[in-house]
Write a structure and sequence with these properties.
alpha+beta; 13 strands
Length: about 260
């Protein structure tokens, strides 16, 4: 092999070596790029998770702010009576303590509160007020059947209940007291004359023991105690409540 041939051979070998080194560099760069891309993806996922957490915290702060506003306003809706011995500050303190206990027990849970003293129904989630509506509760008083001696007291009971059932277009099964009140003969329990359409409004929520949340024929009286013990709502608010709360929802009736 002459000198020129050997030179060409060495140049070819040198070129191959340089190309091999270049290719190796490209491979290493590709691996580094892939690793960097994975790190960027991980970093992006961390940023997205952090953004979601920040959004959740911001939402929680807004909700807590709304709770504080509601708590601060609550003492203002309590009636001020000159005869009471407790100051408004003491009442506010008791309300704050009680609401804290309720909040710890029902944190995040959807529930209904009926203020039977103010005739206002509240729909809440945890301590957050979703909406409120005027309602009517029991008017009080006693009806007595002179013939049998039976008595009925028209009050809305205080305590904790649950929505046991819901129904659209309900029929009212007229109870004995309704016949006694209207001075009509009391029919047998299963008499068809007891079933009355349209008396309860478009929807009814059953609280048990004969107590219901239902509609009213006279919405001008909402906000006053005029019922025979059930909780009455206006048609629009009744529909909203019916669609919002599932069976099993807790209902607290307070005075």
């Amino acid at each position: 092999m002459d000198t020129a041939s050997r030179l060409r051979t060495w140049l070819a070998i040198l070129w191959l070596a340089l190309m091999g080194a270049e290719l190796a560099g490209i491979v290493r760069w590709s691996f580094a790029l892939g690793s960097a891309q994975r790190r960027m993806d991980d970093y992006g996922a961390q940023i997205a998770a952090s953004a979601r957490e920040t959004e959740a915290r911001a939402r929680e702060i807004r909700e807590r702010s709304e709770e504080l506003v509601f708590l601060q306003d609550l003492p203002n809706i309590l009636p001020q009576e000159k005869s009471t011995l407790r100051t408004q500050k003491a009442v506010a303190g008791e309300v704050q303590l009680l609401r804290g206990k309720v909040g710890a027990r029902l944190r995040g849970a959807l529930h209904v509160v009926v203020d039977a003293k103010a005739n206002v129904l509240y729909l809440k989630k945890g301590l957050r007020l979703l909406w409120k509506a005027d309602c009517s509760v029991g008017r009080g008083g006693v009806l007595k059947d002179k013939r049998t001696g039976r008595r009925w007291e028209f009050v809305t009971p205080r305590g904790e209940f649950r929505v046991r059932g819901k129904k659209a277009d309900p029929l009212w099964r007229k109870p004995d007291w309704a016949f006694v009140e209207s001075k009509e003969p009391v029919p047998p329990p299963e008499d068809p004359s007891r079933l009355v359409a349209g008396e309860l409004g478009a929807f009814v929520l059953d609280l048990g023991d004969g107590y219901l949340i239902h509609g009213t024929k006279d919405e001008t009286k909402l906000g006053t105690a005029v019922s025979h013990g059930c909780v009455r709502l206006g048609a629009e608010d009744l529909k909203k409540l019916y669609e919002s709360v599932p069976v099993g929802t807790r209902v607290f009736i307070i005075y």
